């Protein structure tokens, strides 16, 4: 089934089964705003102001939710033409919401605007986005090269599931060693280079431009997980081919939604929606239209939220360092990739909303988190990130528990590493006082003070 142009076109059908089309026009259903020549280069938030605004059915400033699973046509011949690929969502023709849904399609346009890609499509989870794009790009017998510092679920997918179920194998490397990455790529066999823009949980920053150049020289597609740094980093602008997200995190911001996205070229995203070979179409990781509506209302203030997350993370990391704690944060000058990150970030958004606090042992990490949550209310012991409250977890025994001891050591995950997603509720000074009070209660237990 041909799906050319479906996922990013802004055309709207003029009337019932109007298959001849016409010039692109602003309508009550969707308004196109002029795009300035430097809007994307200057600030990713400007892309939102230039994206099509979808109005509601009765002229509401918010779009309507298209909750239908299936869609009707006015003429029988139209359905045949839809299934043959002649007519599609680019002209406002929809078949079934597992394929395309207007509300989800609008959120996908916003995600493409956020990442500066031709197209995007939103899925039911971040892991479904990752698995779908990798399975589209890599067939049985294929090979991938990936960072050894990855989210535990992704690491398990590449290490265990794909080799067993799909005969797809992965070579894990230190993503900071460019020569090692180059040597790991087998020209003609390696299909994908996969890494996180900022690794979970060790906060290693990837040299996206150089890694992309190395991969492209050997004909390899670069897939980057940008979950930790939306708005802060723009991997596609830096050379990546595909950007994936767990929208559940910073983009949602409410810790109440599970969702994902694939952002890339129109040809890739359309191939993933193909009736016969598309992973998004055939595996069915469909996003609910009501979820897409809620997320569409949150994306416009993502930039404001990220600025505050990042501002507080830098402030806390700086103060923790002065207290003699072993803190990991790419915004600190002593972080090994600080200058690299400075060279890649979109200005004014900071250096990320997460920091690592290495308490060396799991016992010390657990004691600190207990004090921070149960006695001073600094934050919550919970996985995930991007919430308005600070979320804390001991990564080695939680979100990276899928990795064995050797894999954790290679990824830079110590037993006592506390990953903190810094929130913005309350005042900065109020929350810092809560942190200091919790730390003072640990003196009898001897918290780590190694630099």
From TrEMBL:
Look up the record and report any one GO term of the cellular component aspect: cytoplasm
Carrying N6-(pyridoxal phosphate)lysine, the residues are 249
Q: Which cofactor does it need?
A: pyridoxal 5'-phosphate
* Protein keywords: Pyridoxal phosphate
Give the GO molecular function terms.
carbon-sulfur lyase activity; pyridoxal phosphate binding
Q: Does the keyword Protein biosynthesis apply?
A: no
InterPro entries per UniProt: Cys/Met-Metab_PyrdxlP-dep_enz, PyrdxlP-dep_Trfase, PyrdxlP-dep_Trfase_major, PyrdxlP-dep_Trfase_small
The record, for SUPFAM superfamilies, names:
PLP-dependent transferases
Q: Name one Pfam family in it.
A: Cys_Met_Meta_PP
GO terms for biological process, alphabetical: transsulfuration
Residue segments, region Disordered? 1-26
What family does the Swiss-Prot or TrEMBL record give for this protein?
A: Belongs to the trans-sulfuration enzymes family.
| UniProt protein name | Cys_Met_Meta_PP domain-containing protein
Organism, scientific name:
Cephalotus follicularis (Albany pitcher plant)
């Amino acid at each position: 089934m041909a799906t050319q142009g479906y996922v990013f076109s802004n055309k709207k059908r003029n009337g019932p089964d109007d298959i001849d089309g016409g010039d692109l026009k602003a309508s009550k259903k969707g308004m196109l705003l002029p795009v300035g020549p430097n809007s994307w280069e200057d600030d990713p938030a400007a892309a939102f102001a230039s994206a099509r605004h979808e109005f509601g059915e009765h002229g509401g400033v918010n779009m309507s939710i298209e909750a239908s699973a299936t869609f009707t046509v006015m003429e029988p011949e139209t359905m045949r033409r839809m299934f043959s690929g002649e007519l599609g969502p680019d002209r406002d023709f929809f078949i079934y919401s597992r394929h395309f849904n207007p509300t989800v399609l609008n959120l996908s346009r916003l995600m493409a605007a956020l990442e500066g890609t031709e197209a995007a499509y939103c899925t039911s989870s971040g892991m479904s986005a990752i698995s779908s794009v990798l399975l589209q790009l890599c067939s049985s017998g294929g090979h991938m090269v990936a960072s050894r510092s990855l989210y535990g679920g992704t690491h398990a997918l590449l290490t265990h599931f794909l080799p067993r179920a799909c005969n797809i194998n992965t070579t894990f490397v230190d993503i900071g060693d460019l020569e090692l990455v180059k040597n790991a790529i087998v020209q003609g066999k390696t299909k994908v280079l996969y890494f996180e823009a900022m690794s979970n949980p060790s906060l290693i920053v990837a040299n996206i431009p150089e890694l992309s150049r190395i991969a492209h020289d050997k004909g390899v597609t670069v897939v980057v997980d940008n979950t930790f740094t939306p708005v802060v980093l723009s991997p596609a602008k830096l050379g990546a081919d595909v950007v994936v997200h767990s929208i559940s995190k910073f983009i949602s911001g409410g810790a109440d939604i599970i969702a994902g996205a694939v952002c890339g070229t129109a040809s890739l995203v359309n191939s993933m929606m193909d009736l016969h070979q598309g992973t998004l179409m055939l595996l069915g990781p469909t996003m609910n239209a009501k979820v897409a509506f809620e997320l569409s209302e949150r994306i416009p203030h993502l930039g404001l939220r990220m600025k505050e997350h990042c501002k507080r993370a830098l402030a806390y990391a700086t103060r923790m360092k002065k207290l003699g704690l072993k803190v990991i944060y790419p915004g600190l000058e002593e972080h090994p990739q600080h200058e690299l990150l400075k060279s890649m970030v979109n200005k004014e958004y900071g250096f990320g909303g997460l920091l690592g606090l290495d308490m060396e042992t799991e016992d010390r990490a657990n004691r600190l988190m207990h004090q921070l949550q149960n006695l001073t209310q600094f934050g919550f012991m919970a996985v995930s990130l991007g919430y308005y409250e600070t979320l804390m977890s001991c990564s080695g025994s939680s979100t990276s528990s899928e990795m064995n001891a050797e894999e954790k050591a290679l990824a830079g995950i110590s037993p006592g590493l506390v990953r903190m997603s810094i929130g913005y509720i309350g005042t900065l000074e109020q929350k810092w006082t809560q942190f200091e009070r919790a730390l003072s209660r640990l003196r009898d237990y001897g918290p780590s003070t190694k630099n």
